[in-house]
C-alpha cells in the first residue's frame, strides 16, 4: 500500500472527513515520526511496532563493478521492530 492508497482508504471509511484533511493528518503523522527519528528518539505505536535509529560504523566496502575497495562513512539508518500484536496477526494467531 502506498501513501495515496492509505489516504483514500481512510477517507472512504470516514465519509465525514474531507480527503484534504485526511491527507494532512497522514502527512503530519509521517512528519512527526520522521522528526522524532531525526532527533534520535524512538517512536512506539502499541500493537504495531517501534521505529528507532541504529548507527552503522565506518567500514571498508567494495565497489561491485570494479572490485575496488572504498571507504564507507558511518551512518544512521532507520530500524523497525514489529509489535507482538502485528506479529501474531501475520502468523495467523
UniProtKB/TrEMBL annotation:
<dbReference type="GO" id="GO:0003677">
    <property type="term" value="F:DNA binding"/>
</dbReference>
<keyword id="KW-0804">Transcription</keyword>
<keyword id="KW-0233">DNA recombination</keyword>
<dbReference type="GO" id="GO:0006417">
    <property type="term" value="P:regulation of translation"/>
</dbReference>
<dbReference type="GO" id="GO:0005694">
    <property type="term" value="C:chromosome"/>
</dbReference>
<dbReference type="Pfam" id="PF00216">
    <property type="entry name" value="Bac_DNA_binding"/>
</dbReference>
<dbReference type="InterPro" id="IPR010992">
    <property type="entry name" value="IHF-like_DNA-bd_dom_sf"/>
</dbReference>
<comment type="function">
    <text>This protein is one of the two subunits of integration host factor, a specific DNA-binding protein that functions in genetic recombination as well as in transcriptional and translational control.</text>
</comment>
<dbReference type="GO" id="GO:0006310">
    <property type="term" value="P:DNA recombination"/>
</dbReference>
<dbReference type="GO" id="GO:0005829">
    <property type="term" value="C:cytosol"/>
</dbReference>
<dbReference type="InterPro" id="IPR005685">
    <property type="entry name" value="IHF_beta"/>
</dbReference>
<comment type="subunit">
    <text>Heterodimer of an alpha and a beta chain.</text>
</comment>
<dbReference type="InterPro" id="IPR000119">
    <property type="entry name" value="Hist_DNA-bd"/>
</dbReference>
<comment type="similarity">
    <text>Belongs to the bacterial histone-like protein family.</text>
</comment>
<keyword id="KW-0810">Translation regulation</keyword>
<dbReference type="InterPro" id="IPR020816">
    <property type="entry name" value="Histone-like_DNA-bd_CS"/>
</dbReference>
<dbReference type="GO" id="GO:0030527">
    <property type="term" value="F:structural constituent of chromatin"/>
</dbReference>
<keyword id="KW-0238">DNA-binding</keyword>
<dbReference type="GO" id="GO:0006355">
    <property type="term" value="P:regulation of DNA-templated transcription"/>
</dbReference>
<keyword id="KW-0805">Transcription regulation</keyword>
<protein>
    <recommendedName>
        <fullName>Integration host factor subunit beta</fullName>
    </recommendedName>
</protein>
Amino acid at each position: 500500500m502506498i501513501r495515496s492508497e492509505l489516504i483514500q482508504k481512510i477517507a472512504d471509511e470516514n465519509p465525514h472527513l474531507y480527503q484534504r484533511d485526511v491527507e494532512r493528518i497522514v502527512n503530519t503523522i509521517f512528519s512527526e515520526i520522521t522528526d522524532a527519528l531525526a532527533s534520535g528518539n524512538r517512536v512506539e505505536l502499541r500493537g504495531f511496532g517501534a521505529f528507532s535509529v541504529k548507527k552503522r560504523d565506518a567500514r571498508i566496502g567494495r565497489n561491485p563493478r570494479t572490485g575496488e575497495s572504498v571507504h564507507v562513512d558511518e551512518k544512521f539508518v532507520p530500524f523497525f521492530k514489529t509489535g507482538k500484536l502485528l506479529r501474531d496477526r501475520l502468523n495467523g494467531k
